[in-house]
Design goal:
This protein is of the alpha+beta class and about 280 residues long. It is built from seven helices and eleven strands. Strands 5, 6, 7, 8, 9, 10 and 11 form a seven-stranded mixed beta sheet that branches. α1 (about 15-30) crosses α2 and α4 runs parallel beside α6.
C-alpha cells in the first residue's frame, strides 16, 4: 500500500515522512467502510497482506455498521533501519446499531522496510490497559479539569483510572500554568517497551506522557520556536527524570535525550529513584 494513498500531509521538519504516511494510508483504508464492507476487506483489496489486515479489526467494533476515520497525528514510537513503530491518534465517526458513536483511538502501528526500500505495515498492536481503577487523586482531577491540558480520549481514560503517576500529573499541571499542552499519548496505545528493546517503558506503567503541541504549535515545527526547549527545561526543574525532545540539553549527562523518534514530541517520564534530568 503506497504512502501516496494517504490524506494525511506531513509538516516541514518531519523525519522520514513516508513511514508515517504509509501508516496513515493503512489506517485510513481500514477505517472507512460502509454496509457492504469491512476494515479487513478494504485492506486486502488495497493490497495489504491478509495477516496485517486481520489486525485492523480493532478499528471496527462489532456493533458498527459503517465508519469514517481521520488520522489526527501519527507520532513516532520507534525507528530503526528496517523497522518502525508509529503511534497514531485517530478519530472515528461510527454508525452503530444503536446510533452514532464518535471516538478517538491511539493505535500502535508496526512497519517494516521491504527489500525494494518501500515501507509496509505488518500489524496493529492491540491496546493494553493499566488495570482496574483506583480512587482519583486531587491532582488527577485537576488535570482532567484543566483547559490548558488537551487530552485525547485514551489519555483522559488513563488519567481516570487513577493509575497515572501523581508526580507526572503534578508536573503536567504545573507546566500548564506557562503553556497549553496537547497530549498525544500516555499509556493506552503506546508501545509497552522501549523500541526496539525488551526494556519496559515508563508508558507501560503510567509514568510517562508524550506532548505533540505546545501552545497550539507542533513540536516538529521548523526551527526558531523556543517553546520546546523552554518546556523541556521547566519539566526538569519540576522533577521529570526523563525529558526527550528535538534537542539533547545536556550531552552525556543523564536525563535529557534526543533522537530521530523524539523530533515530533516531548517525552516526559518519571523513574523512581532517579534524579531529575540535569541541565548543563
Amino acid at each position: 500500500m503506497s504512502a501516496d494513498a494517504s490524506r494525511w500531509r506531513p509538516a516541514p521538519g518531519e523525519v522520514s515522512p513516508e513511514i508515517k504516511r504509509t501508516a496513515a494510508a493503512f489506517l485510513e483504508t481500514a477505517g472507512n467502510w460502509s454496509d457492504d464492507g469491512t476494515a479487513v476487506d478494504n485492506l486486502v483489496r488495497a493490497g495489504a497482506s491478509p495477516a496485517a489486515a486481520a489486525t485492523a479489526s480493532v478499528l471496527q467494533p462489532a456493533t458498527a455498521r459503517a465508519g469514517e476515520l481521520t488520522v489526527v497525528y501519527p507520532q513516532y514510537g520507534g525507528l530503526a533501519r528496517d523497522t518502525a513503530a508509529v503511534i497514531a491518534l485517530v478519530g472515528q465517526n461510527l454508525r452503530t446499531v444503536s446510533g452514532p458513536w464518535i471516538r478517538e483511538l491511539v493505535v500502535d502501528v508496526r512497519l517494516a522496510r521491504e527489500p525494494g526500500g518501500n515501507w509496509t505495515v505488518e500489524r496493529l498492536v492491540p491496546p493494553t490497559s493499566l488495570g482496574s481503577p483506583l480512587p482519583l487523586t486531587d491532582t488527577a482531577a485537576a488535570v482532567l479539569a484543566d483547559p490548558k491540558i488537551v487530552l485525547p480520549d485514551p489519555a483522559r481514560s488513563d488519567v481516570r483510572t487513577g493509575r497515572i503517576d501523581t508526580q507526572l500529573l503534578a508536573i503536567l499541571h504545573a507546566l500548564s500554568r506557562e503553556f497549553t499542552l496537547t497530549v498525544q499519548v500516555m499509556h493506552t496505545g503506546h508501545i509497552q517497551t522501549v523500541f526496539p528493546t525488551a526494556r519496559v517503558s515508563n508508558h507501560a506503567v503510567g509514568r510517562a506522557v508524550d506532548i505533540r503541541e505546545i501552545d497550539g504549535r507542533p513540536v516538529v515545527a521548523p526551527a526558531g520556536d523556543d517553546r520546546p526547549l523552554r518546556l523541556m527545561r521547566r519539566a526538569a526543574e519540576l522533577g521529570a527524570t526523563e525529558v526527550g525532545g528535538p534537542v539533547d540539553l545536556n550531552g552525556v549527562r543523564k536525563g535529557f535525550f534526543s533522537d530521530r523518534v523524539h523530533h515530533d514530541h516531548i517525552h516526559l517520564g518519571i523513574t523512581p529513584g532517579d534524579p531529575p534530568a540535569h541541565l548543563r
